[in-house]
Design goal:
306 residues, alpha/beta, Rossmann fold, 2 domains, seven-stranded mixed beta sheet, six-stranded antiparallel beta sheet
Length: 306
């Protein structure tokens, strides 16, 4: 996940020191300690550091872990591991795509590792796939160290735009059937991706009947972020729903997905299903999982929608 855009002005007093991912490796273990989940951490044993450089936007680390394969870390936060990435990539892509009866043009914002592209490319009816990733280094690093995800770039329907996703949408009004935002957590520059204006930009860039699907954070950790966002966009979108997927390497082992529609109804039931060959290739998504992912624990349902 990556799309640090619309960078806000910083002051010397408020700007923390840049994160150095290598500093989070202690005694051969990488320790993820995020400011959004104080009091808990996730650790992986490191076999080898494969890459660690600071790009124009963020600190990028790739390491080979003992049990999760290669791991991509941005500013100290795990984005992708080879072991469990499919649980996220499949669900953020296929929930909106299979909810849509006939998607032709798809926009991916962020997602520089290529995993979302890989899943979108499984839909033969999609004619154009655009991706806006502002950090070109994430793309190049992923192609080298995460080829199983980055193979999504090989599809001839894919066009890569190294630029701000919001500005791209301003130039492409009512253009896309599905918009997928694969973002990092709402810290620093990424916080704009969890605010109402960004969702308004996506709405304007959708065609009638279109669907947006965005990384929606964890119900165990960030209900105070999820609920205000859902409330703020309900007046504009025809429907706003929350689904989730289980992924061990993300905080609390769960990540949410916000699905919102333009001039159409719910996404809870798939309008199409994977053919037999595609379903055999998928490791997490199915038509049954599609519907089940919208069934929230009672506390989350009440907190978000009541």
């Amino acid at each position: 996940m990556s799309e640090p855009e619309n960078k806000k002005p910083k002051t010397e007093e408020s700007d923390p020191a840049p994160i150095k991912c290598a500093d989070l490796i202690v005694d051969g273990w990488f320790h993820e300690r995020g400011t959004l989940w104080p009091g808990q951490a996730f650790s992986l044993k490191v076999e080898e550091i494969l890459y660690n450089q600071r790009s124009e936007y963020q600190d990028i680390l790739v390491f080979k872990s003992e049990s999760f394969g290669n791991v991509l870390v941005l500013d100290g936060i795990i984005q992708v591991t080879e072991r469990d990435e499919f649980a996220y990539q499949e669900m953020i892509a296929h929930l909106p795509l299979y909810a849509h009866a006939d998607p032709k043009k798809v926009l991916v914002i962020g997602g520089g590792d290529g995993g979302v592209l890989r899943e979108v490319a499984r839909h033969p009816g999609v004619e154009e796939i655009s991706i806006c990733e502002i950090d070109k280094d994430v793309i190049e690093v992923s192609k080298k160290y995460l080829p199983g995800l980055a193979k999504g770039y090989d599809d001839p329907r894919v066009t890569v735009h190294i630029r701000d996703g919001s500005k791209f949408m301003e130039e492409n009004q009512e253009s896309f059937d599905v918009i997928i935002t694969d973002s990092s957590d709402p810290i620093g520059p990424n916080s704009v991706l969890f605010e109402t204006p960004f969702y308004s930009s996506m709405y304007s860039s959708l065609r009638k009947g279109g669907i947006v699907c965005t990384q929606g954070e964890c119900v165990w950790l960030l209900l105070d972020v999820i609920k205000p966002l859902v409330n703020s966009i309900k007046e504009k979108y025809s429907s706003v729903e929350f689904a989730y997927t289980c992924i061990p390497s993300y905080p609390s082992g769960q990540i949410g997905l916000i699905l919102a529609t333009k001039d159409r109804g719910s996404c809870k039931t798939a309008a199409r299903k994977p053919d037999e060959e595609t379903q055999k290739a998928l490791q997490y998504y199915s038509a049954d999982m599609h519907s089940a992912s919208f069934v929230l624990p009672a506390f989350a349902q009440r907190a978000i929608f009541e």
